Amino acid sequence: MTIARHLPRVLTTAGVLAAAVVTTSLILLASGVTLPDAAAVFWDGTFGTGTNAGTTLTQAVPLLLIALGWIVATRAGRLHVGYPGQVIVGGSLATAVGLHCGGLPAPLAVTVTALAGIAGGVLWAGLTAWLWASRGVLEIISSLLLNLVATQVAAWLVRGPLQGPGSQEPQSATFPPSTLWPSSAAVPGQTLSYDVVLLPLCALGVALLLSRTPFGFALRVCGGNAEAARWSGLDPRRAGVAAILVSGGFAGLAGAALLFAGTAPWMSDGFEGGVGFNGIAVALLAGNSPVLAVFTAIAFSALTVGGTALQAGLDVPSSLAQVLQGAVIVLVLLAAVLARRRTARPAAPPTRTEAGVPALVGAEER
Q1: Which alpha helices (DSSP H) does 76-213 contain, by range?
Q2: How much of the chain is helix, strand and coil, in % rounded to 5?
Q3: Is it the case that residue 96 has pLDDT exceeding 90?
Q4: Fewest Cβ atoms closer than 10 Å to its Cβ: which of 15, 48, 69, 349?
């Protein structure tokens, strides 16, 4: 029964990925690259070696965290796009705290930076939640504008309070070694960060949270029918605020992961790199399924890493990865529209009884 329920979602995702492969093939052919060569380079650059596979999996973690935040928020019926700003603020706060944690033991320093990232994301998402709950400002508008503010704040921080001493580059000081999230020594180049454990743990945790807890039940009821939720004694506004804050926490953790599990041990003003919006696409491609989002996050990460490999190996334009990701987003939206049209049922015309025709006839006869 469960398999049958999830089968349309899986088939839709597979169809979108297949269409993306066809789109990729056409772009490569237009660039004068043979498909066997491109496939070989793409595989080698993403999963062909332990080093490249570690990079692909590590870069999938922030994407999944954003996707999970989107899934939680949409369950409560709240659509906001403030994830880039929350990633930036979460990473900025994690940087500010992490630069002063050099004297702490490594496990404690890593935990502190992760918590700081979560706190930054929650605080920035709290602005969106407050504007919506108390002032009635649409969260999709306020969160979009707050993204711009966060970008400017980060640019100021790396050129001011957080800039490395004596550095002319717009970047923070180097992170203390104890704050860097550990990576597996078994993988050459140590590209596989241990934060990959967040992929299954967070996905399973969110799935259980939404389906097996009173909090998840409240989100689903309030997101499905706010009026029915009020009659049931639930507060849709409180559920919406909670969902936005939780989604901000995931985004803030993604910001900390980007910095402290990344390849560069410092913060620059462009570290977010489009992860916030790509994470939304990951959730849409997964049909808002937390478990399926693990695989779509890895697929999106492979597009980015594989695009770099294609550029280096076959001189393919560097924008290919962005083009493919955009194509996937368009295909996902198209699939959603088609699915909605397929499931929609035209309303049956009212019967004569429902329309009150017999009553009118009877009245005329009388």
Answers
A1: 83-98, 106-135, 139-157, 198-212
A2: 75, 0, 25
A3: yes
A4: 349
